[in-house]
Design goal:
mainly alpha; 0% strand; 68% helix
Length: 468
């Protein structure tokens, strides 16, 4: 295993507890707190199975990434691996596509945060709240990585504590029968209102697009590799705890909520967690939960700005983005990349002004397709890496994925199926049109790069980070 290149220039300011909480926080975001409402309305109680199924596949992807990270921990992460094992073009496309994913995810998080503000201040326009949060988070991301890690640590701590608290209160309602929901709360709510698949298996499968969006950001731990103090210890631990996080925060929380409140009472555009506590009859708790989900949205957007700056710097280091994005400021943060990303996230503010009812569906669909590309590149890179190890061309990783490449192939098939479901759904199909336009932009950009900088096509070329 090789270490992350010291010439990257980053400060290794992320400690073990911060990396652990960033990994946990990456699995708890707007996709769970906000998107779950629409998914419950479509699939009923079977949404629990969809989150569990997708969670298993996500674990396969993360173990594949973990093996690669321990082979070579770099902040460029899967873009670097795609460049090494699939060629410069795929590294270029992966880096820019992952950057796009976080830009549109930031739009989704800003949208969700603005919706949550409506819980307390319904008179404030959605776009105004989104703009205020965008400016605040941009300021936070200009601070050193140590401060970023500390902010994310406490953001994630709030989310984790709140979900555990919600589960405990829900279990209390189920077992002790207190509150306004005590008389109707029962585990039988999982099958008593139209069955476990009330709208059929087909409608349940159609929620997988939204479910996969909920898991976007679990791979963020790979971006922290170049700034982790002890990646050989912190990264495996963060990845191996993923099944526990999925069981507790997704499956466990949804089982409790759907037992306390029957699924027919949930709807799109409303957090199921806030609604559940409103039904239980604890107004103060509903306000607290709304604060927590607001924190979750802002945390995820904050992480998005962090990752976009790092990904643009990796692209610049490989001459695949303007050189200005390769520079660090005095605080060792990639200011130019963060600034551009925050500016483009501002498009979400415009969308919140023009199509406030549709913006969340649009941006989550686009983000999911971009995320699927990144996950697919991780899996294919892992398969290629294992082939090189078997052939004796590369050293084995200290953190091998179980089952070799078998589960990587299984995960690839699953991702292909989810892409097909996105194409089938008329509401989400628009993201594939956007993806086609993005593919054309990427190909044109690549040919322009080749003509101006022929060396970018050399697979043996090493990145050169700007001296700051």
């Amino acid at each position: 295993m090789t270490s992350a290149a010291p010439e990257e220039g980053y400060e290794r300011g992320l400690g073990s507890r911060q990396v652990q909480m960033i990994a946990i926080g990456g699995a708890i975001g707007v996709g769970l707190f906000m998107g779950a409402g629409a998914n419950i309305a479509k699939a009923g109680p079977s949404i629990i199975l969809m989150y569990a199924l997708a969670g298993v596949v996500i674990f396969f992807i993360m173990r594949a990434l973990g093996e690669l990270l321990l082979y070579r921990p770099v902040s460029g992460s899967f873009a670097e691996y795609a460049r090494e094992f699939l060629g410069p073009f795929f590294g270029y496309v992966t880096g820019w596509t992952y950057w796009l994913m976080w830009v549109v995810t930031g739009m989704a998080e800003l949208t969700a945060a603005a919706i949550y503000i409506h819980f307390w201040f319904p008179s404030i326009p959605q776009w105004v709240s989104a703009l205020v949060f965008l400016v605040l988070l941009f300021g936070v991301n200009l601070i050193s990585v140590k401060i970023f890690g500390e902010v994310e640590f406490w953001f994630s701590m709030v989310k984790v504590t709140a979900i555990i608290g919600m589960i405990v209160i829900g279990l209390g309602v189920l077992t002790l029968g207190f509150s306004d929901a005590g008389d109707t709360a029962a585990v039988s709510n999982l099958w008593s209102h139209g069955g476990f698949f009330p709208n059929g298996i087909g409608d349940s499968l159609m929620t997988l697009q939204g479910v996969m969006f909920a898991y976007l950001a679990v791979e963020l731990v790979g971006i922290t590799a170049g700034e982790s103090q002890d990646p050989e210890k912190t990264l495996p631990k963060a990845i191996n705890t993923l099944p526990f996080r999925i069981i507790v925060f997704y499956v466990g929380a949804l089982v409790v909520i759907l037992s306390v409140v029957k699924w027919t009472e949930f709807s799109a555009g409303e957090s199921p967690f806030v609604h559940a506590f409103s039904v239980i009859g604890i107004p103060l708790a509903a306000g607290i939960v709304n604060f927590v989900v607001l924190t979750a949205a802002l945390s995820s957007c904050n992480s998005g700005m962090y990752s976009t700056g790092r990904m643009l710097r990796d692209l610049a280091a490989n001459s695949e983005a303007p050189g200005i994005f390769g520079k660090l400021n005095a605080r060792k943060t990639p200011f130019a990349g963060i600034a551009l990303s925050a500016f483009l996230m501002g498009i979400g503010v415009i969308l919140n002004y023009t199509v406030p009812d549709k913006v969340f569906t649009y941006v989550t669909s686009i983000a999911t397709v971009a995320g699927i590309w990144a996950w697919a590149m991780i899996l294919i890179s892992h398969i290629r890496y294992r082939k090189a190890v078997v052939a004796g061309r590369l050293p084995a990783s200290s953190f091998p994925a179980p089952g070799g490449t078998v589960f990587s192939w299984v995960a690839l098939v699953f991702l292909t199926g989810v892409t097909g479901l996105i194409a089938y759904d008329s509401e989400t199909r628009i993201c594939l049109y956007v993806g086609a336009v993005w593919a054309v932009i990427m190909v044109i950009g690549w040919f322009v790069l080749k003509s101006r900088t022929p060396e970018v096509t050399d697979p043996e070329r090493k990145p050169e980070f700007a001296k700051d």
